[in-house]
Automatic annotation (TrEMBL):
Belongs to the glutamate 5-kinase family. Substrate binds at S76, D163, N175. GO terms for molecular function: ATP binding; glutamate 5-kinase activity; RNA binding. ATP binds at K32, S195, D196, T231, G232, G233, M234, A235, S236, K237. Its main location: cytoplasm. It holds the Pfam family AA_kinase. Residues 297-380 form the PUA domain. NCBIfam families: proB. This is Glutamate 5-kinase. One of its GO terms (biological process) is L-proline biosynthetic process. It catalyses: L-glutamate + ATP = L-glutamyl 5-phosphate + ADP. It comes from Chondromyces crocatus.
Length: 384
């Protein structure tokens, strides 16, 4: 699988039925399940459904879906299990005790996956990541190749944040965001976010079946987690959906405890809240620049430069730079702001912050020395 591989997606403006029908053809699926959904027989039910996907036995009375799907799981649960194992009365708030709970609970979590998936003849493989792993391009490519090798070997990768060593600077934030980063990493057609609710709810408490625009239709409906078990609320899931759809994956938020939920979603049935993939996905590398790397600073550009960036994806020249914010080095990710201070793009700096400030507003004879951010390293963010 190449870094810039393209995925087929429904045409712009495709309706919900067309996109749900496309779910039956998805061949690479990332399933994220949260802490609150992992209780009772959750592991056995999930194993049975993944087994059906892997063997092509999927179907609920309608036409069976395509065989041989590759499945990657992004799981929470280590800290919650560790809290119980260590006898803590509640989820700790300090980093050291959180890390202790993660270390104690991760082995229990994997043991439960091993036992459940072993019953249906599937091999699981633990993959622990930190944000620092995916922020480094070489390590990202290594992770991609390792995951691809596991899938080719018929294993089911079980991915979790390496909470036992992660500190605030290298955390993903929550596993919803991790799953959105994993989706382009493995070339996923579908990201299925399994939660303790049936999907995104409207102001009347009714499930929203289909979201065409996150900014216009979904963000105001998303709240924050109040469970005290997990860290990601609906706002996090909606943001993960936005990022994954830009990478070419359809996204469904659905209830983990609903009977045969994975099977029903992959059969195209009206379950959960569906977010359709954008017709023209951005490459894995540009998705990495925009949505994995964290900006170290920012460039403020003039109106002409802002228009050239958004309309034509032009490189940023020194003459168009009004000012610099923060401290960054060559190769660091930076935000690109228009004169109003609105972020319009992200890119990789070719100069340090001090050098960029020194040459700002200057027109230089050597065009190569004039490029502060090259267009190949620049990602225009969707307009809100």
């Amino acid at each position: 699988m190449t870094d810039d591989a393209e995925h087929a997606a429904p045409a712009q403006g495709a309706d919900e039925q067309t996109i749900r029908a496309a779910l039956r053809r998805c061949q690479r699926v990332v399933i994220k399940i949260g802490s609150k959904s992992l209780s009772g027989d959750a592991w056995d039910r999930l194993a049975a459904e993944v087994s059906a996907l892997r063997s092509g036995r999927q179907g609920t009375g309608r036409r069976a879906a395509s065989a041989g799907r590759g499945v990657v799981l992004v799981t929470s649960g280590a800290i919650a299990l560790g809290v119980t194992k260590l006898g803590f009365k509640s989820r700790p708030k300090d980093m050291a005790r959180l890390q202790a709970a993660a270390a104690a609970g991760q082995s229990v979590l994997m043991q439960r996956y091993e036992e459940a998936f072993g019953k249906v003849g599937l091999v699981v493989a633990q993959v622990l990541l930190t944000h620092a792993d995916l922020a480094d391009r070489t390590r990202t490519n290594n992770a991609r190749e390792a995951l691809e090798a596991l899938l080719e070997a018929g294993a089911v990768p079980i991915i979790n944040e390496n909470d036992a060593v992660a500190v605030e600077e290298i955390r993903f934030g929550d596993n919803d965001q991790l799953s959105a980063m994993v989706a382009p990493l493995v070339g996923a057609d579908l990201l299925l976010l399994l939660s303790d609710v049936e999907g995104l709810l409207d102001d009347g408490g009714q499930r929203v079946s289909f979201v065409r625009s996150v900014a216009r239709e979904a963000r105001h409906l998303a709240g924050k987690s109040t469970s005290g078990v997990g860290t990601g609320g609906m706002a996090s899931k909606v943001e993960a959906a936005r990022r994954a759809t830009l990478a070419g994956a359809h996204v469904v938020i659905a209830a983990a405890k609903a009977p045969q939920i994975v099977t029903r979603v992959l059969a195209g049935e009206e379950e959960g809240t569906l977010f359709g993939a954008v017709p023209q996905r951005i490459s894995a590398r540009k998705h990495w620049i925009a949505y994995t790397l964290r900006p170290r600073g920012a460039l403020l550009v003039d109106r002409g430069a802002a228009d050239a960036i958004t309309a034509s994806n032009r490189s940023i020249l020194a003459v168009g730079v009004l000012g610099v914010r923060g401290t960054f080095l060559p190769g660091d990710a930076i935000a690109i702001l228009n004169p109003d201070g609105t972020e319009i793009a992200r890119g990789l700096a070719r100069f340090s912050a001090s050098d960029a400030a020194r040459i700002a507003r200057k027109k230089r004879p050597d065009i190569e020395d004039d490029i502060v951010v090259h267009r190949d390293d620049l990602v225009v963010l969707p307009a809100e």
